[in-house]
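Sat 14:20. Reprocessing the chain from the morning session after the first attempt stalled halfway. Input below, unchanged.
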Amino acid sequence: MGDNDEFDNDAAPLPPHEREWRHPAEMHHELRLRHQVESAPPPLSRRFTMVVGLISLAVSFSLLLVTVPKGLSSTSADVSAPAPSSTIPPKGSTPELTAPAALHVTDGLLLIQARDARDGRQSVTAEDGRTVSAVHLVTFSSHCMSVLRTETELGADEWFDLDREEFAYLGRAGQLHIIDSAGSRITTRSGISMEGDDPWLPLDTDGIPVGIGTVMTADDNVVGYAMRCNHGTWAVRYADLLALINDGRGAQP
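Finished this time. Tokens:
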């Protein structure tokens, strides 16, 4: 028994690829590897992965725009709302009120709404914006108009004298218009104007005049004054108004 290995029983076993038989353990291992390969999902392509990533990014950005309110900034939390004024007027003082608007007639006579009239002396705002002192003369309560007198020089208005019959005719024909205290032009329509001894003429208008307005003809001649009262618009001629003031035909407010 020398160095001859022909009969050497300790030789290493042949590798699997050089023999035709398989050990059961080897066959089980190959089957397990094949099952893992076949059950594994196919690998994603690089292009598909990139598309999915871009879609996810776009969806996230859209949700951010929707959920975050516009106009927020990092300094919004540092800005506090202004505190309400704690100033309290002195006891017994009255708040400053704007003097009511008055329409100048002539010779210091002023017209205001009856609801703004006060007994005695009061301040009113003339058409030129000045605040003047005036004293109450008379109130025509049925037509919501009061007359005051002021010693402040306001000049004389130009007016056109129409007789009462012509005044009533123009009102009935819708040929008069009113410029109210807000500067709006209110047109009249053919309607309910009446004739007779009553100096107050009801007008059918296309709008509601604000405050006391000036009644004018189509040629823009001043012929009287108008006031909205008791769901109607009433006009009075310039001459009739002066006569009513002189007669004192009114009621105190």
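The mean pLDDT is 77.
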